[in-house]
């Protein structure tokens, strides 16, 4: 049972050991309630499995010790930002998503909305409001799935450009403090502790909050035993 994160029980009676088994997430009387709960938990699991590269402070002494995934992601990012995308890029991505989520009427409706109204909203709006965008993008970046990343290249460029524009408009003399909580494995946590003061590099975009309590609550509800709490200060 060590490899089982959660247990979902379908039925109309209370399970005798529901309160004793922490892995039991509930007893559900219909498929819709199970589906909704699974969707929320999968979304949280996706966030808790975001990979982190830790770059030691003394890395200049030996560049060969750089995390290979960090080097690879940096090269990929530079390449992505140089590619020239045409109007067909969005159409190809939409077709990919329609095939991927052909079984889900709700997601197909969201994909149609994305296709028809993409330029009516900002990239950040789409990233935060449409779950399929967030899930496809962050999974591809985390797994370094080149095929999907290239299909989303036009969106990554637009999102990157908007973030840069917002940062350039920010009052450089004022501090901006944001918070993020994330679950991690014991191995990752120990690696982090051994490289105190080093650089943390993420392969994907991070969602943060102005509210410290929100991030703490998210971290402590993670599936993994340890959690990382980030205090992000722009200065």
Helix fraction by DSSP (H/I, runs of at least 4): 40-55%
Runs with pLDDT <50, length 5+? Answer: none
Biggest sheet statistics: 2 strands, parallel
User: What is the number of independent domains?
Assistant: 3
Mean pLDDT: 77
Rg computed from alpha carbons, rounded to a whole number of angstroms: 20 Å
- Category by helix and strand content: alpha+beta
Structure description:
The chain has 235 residues and is α+β, with helices and mostly antiparallel strands. The protein has 3 domains: 7-45, no CATH class; 52-65 and 172-233, no CATH class; 81-169, no CATH class. The chain is built from 10 helices and 6 strands; from the N terminus they run ββαβαααααααβαβαβ. Strands 1-2 form a two-stranded parallel ribbon. Strands 3-5 form a two-stranded antiparallel sheet. Helix 3 packs antiparallel against helix 4. The protein is globular and about 55 Å long. The model has no long low-confidence stretch (mean pLDDT 77).
Secondary structure layout:
Elements: E1 7-10, E2 24-28, H1 31-48, E3 52-55, H2 68-80, H3 88-100, H4 105-117, H5 123-129, H6 131-143, H7 146-151, H8 153-169, E4 177-184, H9 186-194, E5 199-202, H10 212-220, E6 226-233
Parallel strand pairs: 1-2
Antiparallel strand pairs: 3-5, 4-6
């Amino acid at each position: 049972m060590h490899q089982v994160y959660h247990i979902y029980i379908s039925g109309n009676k209370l399970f005798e050991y529901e309160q004793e088994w922490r892995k039991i997430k509930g007893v559900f009387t219909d498929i819709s309630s199970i589906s909704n709960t699974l969707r929320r938990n999968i979304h949280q699991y996706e966030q808790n499995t975001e990979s982190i590269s830790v770059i030691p402070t003394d890395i200049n002494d030996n560049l060969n010790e750089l995390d290979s995934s960090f080097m690879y992601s940096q090269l990929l990012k530079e390449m992505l930002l140089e590619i020239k995308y045409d109007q067909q890029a969005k159409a190809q991505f939409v077709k990919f998503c329609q095939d991927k989520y052909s079984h889900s009427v709700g997601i197909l409706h969201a994909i149609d909305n994305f296709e028809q109204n993409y330029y009516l909203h900002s990239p950040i709006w789409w990233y935060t409001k449409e779950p399929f965008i967030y899930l496809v993008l962050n999974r591809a970046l985390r797994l370094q799935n080149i095929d999907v990343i290239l299909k989303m290249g036009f969106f990554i460029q637009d999102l990157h450009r908007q973030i840069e524009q917002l940062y350039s408009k920010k009052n450089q003399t004022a501090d901006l403090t944001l918070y993020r909580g994330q679950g991690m494995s014991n191995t990752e946590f120990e690696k982090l502790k051994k490289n105190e003061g080093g650089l943390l590099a993420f392969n994907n975009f991070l969602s943060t909050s102005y509210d410290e309590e929100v991030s703490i609550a998210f971290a402590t509800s993670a599936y993994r035993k340890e959690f990382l709490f980030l205090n992000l200060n722009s200065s």
